[in-house]
Specification:
Helix content: 40-55%
Order of helices and strands: HEHEEEEEEEEEEEEEHHHHHHH
Number of strands: 14
Strand order of the largest sheet: 1-2-5-8-11-14
Number of domains: 2
Oligomer: single chain
Strand content: 5-15%
Structural class: alpha/beta
Radius of gyration: 31 Å
Length: 402
Amino acid sequence: MCRADRLLLAAGLFFLLAPPAYAASPSEFRAAHPVPQAIPPAPQGGFSISIRDLSAPAALEPALARALRESASPGFALTVPGGEAHIGDFSIGSGESRQGDLLILNGNADLYGRLAGNLVTVGGDITLHPGSHVSGSVLAYGGQVRDAGGEVTGDIHTLGTINPAARATASASALPPMMRALRNVAGLAGIFLTLLGIGFGLVLLGKPNLEIISDTVSHTFARSFAVGLLAQVLAIPTFVVLILGLILSVVGILLVPFVAIAFGLLLLVAILAGALAVAHSVGETYIRRRLARGELLGSPSSYRYVLTGLAGMLLLWVGWAAFGWVPVLGWVAFGAAALVTWMLLTVGLGAALLSRLGLAGHFAGRLIAPETLTDEYLWATPQFGVPAARRPGQHKTPPPVR
């Protein structure tokens, strides 16, 4: 193993095993609240929630969950009959008095003054500070009601927990565009480092199998895609038939949990090995083409192939990471990246199945001459049986010309 390979291996193991530089406290995992602002009323016949009657808070749960989920979309509007709606943290100051019902989405409500109406928070807490007064009922959906010396003439309700997906969607939209882009880039970096560590481990422990699957991707691309697509269609029916066959037998019933776990693990290994093989194939093709043009890149190795291929595959998502917050462009970038990634994963899965996870070494060269699969004939020399000339030694005098 050359020095460059050792450095690449050490870097991959460092990123895989190094502890995180920052550990967030439990309170920091709570959803970030957006910038406080009033929600405009919806047009006639639009989305409306009445919080005049809080005697049955469970009946309001679907509407409140929908309001939190849709608050992430641009141009969100909501009508509260006899009241108003706000997004983000909200407070009523000491000596201040407000009339009508109040609905707060994705924010905390701090009361120091008086409110003549009902108060509902979705994804936040209600704090009744000393001297505050609510001439109605309060409801905290997905939060808590803290009585620090306030007064409520009606009832105090708390309602369950909010769906984490809805809370995450609302919180993500509340972040500034730059922060959202940085968060997406950080997520891509985490995925890249994880796959890089697994890929380096696969090269270290199963390099022959990885190279066979990679060669299958390179030389039978269309067939690998067809097999991978067929495997996706038949995966669930095959699993169902297998489980039913075991259930119909007396002894097979005991094997159902083990077979289900083994089937899932084999499918996961095939997908992961296929994805890394696609990265290996992409990186090998790119690096060897540069070497064929005479560029000095050092000695090629499987570690470098996996590193380069993964970087190239994740570059597909850079457009989404940078512009995912743009309403139309973000969806276009996401759709394009998802489509290309699905195609590559399908090819990798098909190649892993065709080559029996790299155990069928003869398959990759079935359609071409065997010598085209060797390192000596992949670049800078003619292929199909033409031998490469041997370079003379550095200190040898060339023979005289006759």
